[in-house]
Amino acid sequence: MNSFKGTMTAVGTAVVIAAVGALAAPAASAAVPAARQTALASELEAKSVAMSLPAARVRQDPNNTYIVVVDASSQRPDRVEVRRAGTDKVVAVVDDLSDHIEFPDESGGPSQFSYEGDKQPLVLADIGYYELDVYVKDGNGNELSRRNAGQFTYALDARIEAKSSQQEFSLDDLDTQVTGSVTAVHPHTGERLPLTSAKVRARLGDGQAHGVSDAQGKFTTTVAALGTEKTLTHTVALASGGTEVPVTTPAKIRAQKSTLTLTPTAPLTARYGTTVPVRGKLTRLADDGTVKPAAGRSLAASGAGRATASTGPDGSYTLLPPILRTGSLGVSVQDAWLLGDGTRTATVAKVTHTTKVVEEKLVSTDKYGGLTISGKVTVDGITSQQATIQIQFQYRPGNWVTRQSFTVPYNKTFTVRVTQPGSQYPSDGWRVYTPGTSNIGPSTGTQVLRQNRAETRITGAQSGPTHNGEVQQVFVSGVLRTSTPGGFVPYPGQKVRYYFRPEGSTVWAEMGTSVSGADGAVSRTFTAQTSGYWRIRFVDADATHLISNGAEGRVKVTR
Question: From the CA atom positions of the chain, what is the Rg in Å?
């Protein structure tokens, strides 16, 4: 978005548009002659050969001063000349351009560099549409120029009143004539005057057309919709260097009746992921009552496969939906300019190269949380590809995460060992999944495999020094718990082991054992030899429990 947008927003440009007879409009006047419009359009686009020179624009400050701004360039601008649009008449020259840096706000982004003529604000005699020519000097002192390096409207509170010859549009009637007038307030006299040579942009849907106001501020232009829009809006706006402040009014699409045919009609067989051509023809009932091909219109396939396509010049179409499952394959018109006559349906009777996870089971578990899982992935069809197998755990209900991935031949039993993901990723069941390929279907095991060993935890782990005369003692304590359907409860009568690692070492040494009490509590006192780390481990788990490690605790010996 350039500064012209800000300029036009600041002046509060207003636009009023109405259908014929819906709003009082200015009396029609003679339009600018076609030859003159062509000449003006040509002049608006005229540029010198020095296209590498910077662009220019005009910024309107809050106090209604107009400042020339030239974009940053390796060549410093020497001056900017202001011309009345479409003429060679220079009405102002800005030759005192200073460096300007605009630093980024809190949102970040790069700084913006430019040259500004803030010491020479523009004061022009007449309101209107103007063009900017930029001049620079090269290293040899030669002068280069960029003609029409920017455009701007010198006016306040520009207003457009316009009327359109119609508000309903069909594929046989896409255009409308727009007429109106443009006025604006002179920045210095405060007088509202016709705005001459103003470029006016009319839009109808995605179509647009331009007109130029005459000496009385009057304009006429014809604009047409493209006929591909989903909705229509009608806009007339003042354009200044690509800037406009429009007001829009809805325009109605008058949809025409259509007729859709579809082939084939016989049940289809397809390999998973491959496309099946679905053909047919689309016609429409024209405004004059004749049946015509509906060219360039949108259709969609849904159901067993999805695809979109547009009709050709004769109304024929070919959809190529990749087939993903059996069932109905529907084709329908997806076009706001046509009234569809329902969905045409083909049947996908069989899809080959689909897969199925079978015989999955939990073979065994170990006290460290490892699981051995076996299963098989079958495929309905001949293939030399191998199956990608993913062993997944359920992190949250419905949220499956891949723990291990490998490949095996289809239709062959596999056995794999996976480890628990860790306490920070609790697993609520495991499953076997194969993602398939572009032409072999995915599938998910029907069984959720669950760890048959109970989790254990050592909670409330503590360690610290106690002094006994000249000998420093260290206590280490915690509570051993085990999981149950009702939550974690004390786990009594179990042996735990105590380990010590001297500061600076990576080796843990077992220091002793104890048995958990009725409340699961465990504790021991040791004679401290040096500073280091202590922890409790439950490693003597039976066939129904998992091991656990308590948190490390550092104890500093000061004697």
Answer: 40
Distances (CA, A) of 98 to 65, 71, 74, 101, 225: 17, 12, 15, 10, 45
pLDDT tens-place string over residues 430-443: 999 999 999 999 99
| pLDDT of 381 over the 90 cut | yes
β-bridge partners, 387:
408
* DSSP 8-state assignment for residue 449: B
**Cβ neighbours around 292 below 10 Å, total:** 15
For the cut 60, the answer to whether the pLDDT of residue 1 exceeds it is: no
475 C-beta neighbours (distance < 10 Å), count = 15
User: CA dist 465 to 377, 460, 475, 498, 499, Å?
Assistant: 58, 17, 6, 15, 16
**Dihedral Cα 69, 72, 76, 81, nearest 10 deg:** -30
- Does position 179 have pLDDT exceeding 60, yes or no? yes
What is the DSSP pairing of strand 471-484 with strand 355-365?
unpaired
**Can you tell me the distance from the alpha carbon of 298 to that of 318, in angstroms, rounded to the nearest whole number?**
11
User: In this prediction, what percent of the chain has a pLDDT beyond 70?
Assistant: 87
d(CA 323, CA 64): 63
d(CA 115, CA 97) in angstroms, rounded, equals: 6
CB-CB contact of 548 with 458 (8 Å): yes
Confidence of residue 247 (pLDDT cuts 50, 70, 90): low
Query: For the chain, what is the largest distance between any 2 Cα atoms, rounded to a whole number of angstroms?
Result: 114
**Candidate from 67-71, 137-141, 174-178, 532-536 with smallest mean pLDDT:** 137-141
Q: Characterize the bridge pairing of strands 399-409 and 386-396.
A: antiparallel
CA atoms within 13 A on the CB side of 293: 12
Query: Residue 391 pairs with which residues in a beta bridge?
Result: 404, 432
- Burial (CB count within 10 angstroms: exposed 0-12, middle 13-18, buried 19+), residue 447: middle
Cβ neighbours of 363 (radius 10 Å) = 13
The Cβ of residue 330 has, within 10 Å, a number of other Cβ atoms equal to 18
Strand partners, 501: 533
Q: Residue 425 has what pLDDT?
A: 62
- The Cα 107–Cα 558 span in angstroms is 53
d(CA 559, CA 557): 6
User: CB atoms < 10 A from the CB of 103, how many?
Assistant: 8
What's the N-to-C CA distance of the chain in angstroms?
A: 73
Whole-angstrom CA distances from 163 to 160, 175, 419 are 10, 14, 74
DSSP bridge partners of 344: 331
Give how far Cα 551 sits from Cα of 134, 498, 499, 513, Å. 73, 12, 11, 17
Find tokens 């045919």 and name the residue. 261
CB atoms inside a 10 Å sphere around CB 493: 10
- Report yes or no: 58 and 67 within 8 Å, Cβ to Cβ: yes
Kindly give, in sequence order, each residue whose CB lies less than 8 Å from that of residue 36, ignoring residues fewer than 6 positions away: none
Judged by DSSP in three states, 223 sits in strand
Round to whole Å and give the CA distance between 557 and 471.
Answer: 10
